[in-house]
Amino acid sequence: MNESRRDFLLFGGAALVGAATLAHHENSPNSGGFSWPAGTQVGVVLDLPPELRTENLGGGSCVHASTVNLLIWQGQPELARWWRDNYSGGEYSDRLVSRMEAANLRYAYTRDGNFAFLEWCIRTRRGAGIFYKIRHAINCVGIDSQNVLLLDNNDIDYHERIGTYETVEIEQFKDRWNGYGGFAWTLVYVPPPPTPYV
Which of 28, 128, 131, 184 lies deepest, with the highest CB count within 10 Å? Predict the structure, then answer.
């Protein structure tokens, strides 16, 4: 598999910034034109066990909690600890991108509510952080044929108790997410393989 370091401008203008080394194969974001087949049931792909989920600590670290969840899920526990030890408090998109760049993380993001970016994040099993709800960020952990599935770092215990994720109908999610600015990001490392079914 050939890998190269480059910038991407994809999905009709969504910014995927390459401090990322991205493999050029069918799962790379430059494959473009992807849409879920009718009836696809993808479900939750970023399925962190409750004991590994990062809570929003100290009021306003939701962006960092979401980033730590992505790092843990993608097999980067040392980077996750480092990120948590070095960043807390409120965050906004430009500074997050600058901090990911300064930390030499491999990352990708969109600023324009491009749902294809989230589909790519789920299709490649990476998950995403999204600005969603009022002054809040959470993780997009899955998409199925009807819903987007979300993990809210303000409500880790709730999800553990009932064993489910927040679900929002896709068109409703798109409207809300765009209303909150349409920003999403992911890290570009290797997530665990899917759970085998027998």
Answer: 184
Residue with tokens 């980033």, as numbered in its chain: 67
Extract the runs of DSSP E, i.e. beta strands, from 7-132.
8-10, 14-16, 21-23, 43-44, 107-110, 128-131
Q: Residue 50: helix, strand or coil by DSSP?
A: helix
Q: From the DSSP assignment, how many helices (H) and strands (E) are in the chain?
A: 6, 11
Q: What is the mean pLDDT of the chain?
A: 79
Predicted confidence at residue 24, as pLDDT, reads 28
Average pLDDT, integer, range 41-54: 82
pTM of this structure? 0.78
Q: Three-state SS for 185? A: strand
- Rounding to the nearest 10 degrees, give the CA dihedral for residues 130, 81, 24, 34: -20
d(CA 190, CA 73): 8
Rounded-to-integer distance, Cα 167 and Cα 12, Å: 27
Domain ranges within the chain, ordered by starting residue: 3-23+41-187
Quick check: 170 and 178 in contact, CB under 8 A? Answer: no
Contact between 101 and 93 under an 8 Å Cβ cutoff? The reply is no
Class of domain 3-23+41-187: alpha beta
Q: What angle do CA 101, 154, 156 make, to 5 degrees?
A: 105
Residue pair 104/19 in contact (Cβ under 8 Å)? The answer is yes
Q: Which residues are CB-contacts of 82 (< 8 A; sequence separation ≥ 6)?
A: 103
